[in-house]
Amino acid sequence: MLDNLLRLSSVIGRFAQKGQVRILSKLSVENSAKSCRGKMSLPKPNIVFVLGAPGSGKGTQCEKIVKNFGYVHLSAGDLLREERSREGSEYGELIENYIRNGKIVPVDVTCALLENAMTQNMKVSGKDSFLIDGFPRNQDNLDGWQRRMSEKVNLKFVIVFNCPEDACVERCINRGKSGSNRSDDNIESLKKRFDTFINDSLPIINHYKEQNLVREVDATKNPDEVFEDVKVLFAD
Asked: For the region NMPbind, what residue ranges are annotated (predicted)?
């Protein structure tokens, strides 16, 4: 065994004289560094909340913002509907019952879907600016977001699209007639949703007003005219 150790020592010595031991060590360090960089956390996403009554035109304006300013549009409602229809979803039946009754889905479900969508988008596209449409809608949403997500994102501001109930209901009914395939685009559900917005979402808007984060937009005009006002908010 002593002879083997002496031969091994001699081999290492020859490699060291040639600088090859240092080279192997350097390669090891570089590979470790690359591995660490690969595990680094993603940057904080930039967030703009988009609020307004059902039918106020949030989705339409978000499409225009995406096209002109490169944001990623995440609709809390769309994410919930997709999860509701996803085969094998553990939340599907629960989400269906809440949506049909015009109620707000539990915040932990919504936050989980939003966080996952942002993470996947940043990994795939590299984009880190998001429009979150229709969230937070009530105090429970706000509390859950503050608890789970507020430290993980940069909230830039909150857009609020203002539109009266009769105009919103008419838009949603027309959307249903044109084949939106949304089970909640009916008079009964719409009135419940509008009442929910007034009772639950307005206090959230007031909360962000106190922080000077709310940017209000008149949504009664046609979509192109509304977007002229929206563009000003993103020009800075």
From this structure: 75-105
Q: How much is the pTM?
A: 0.73
Residue 100 known to bind ligand: no
Domain containing residue 225: 46-234
**108's tokens:** 């932990």
CB-based contact 91:204 (threshold 8 Å): no
- Any binding-site annotation on 103? yes
> What token pair was written down for 187?
């008079």
39 is in an annotated binding site: no
Whether residue 65 sits in one domain with residue 19? no
State both tokens at 113: 């879907």
d(CA 89, CA 96) in angstroms, rounded, equals 11
Indicate which CATH number applies to the domain containing 69.
3.40.50.300
Has 209 been labeled as part of a binding site?
no
193's tokens = 């949703």
The answer to the question of whether 67 is labelled as a binding residue is no
The annotation status of 58 as a binding-site residue, yes or no, is: yes
Q: Which pLDDT tens digit goes with each residue over 1-10?
A: 435 433 434 4
Backbone angles phi, psi at 171, to 5 degrees: -60, -45
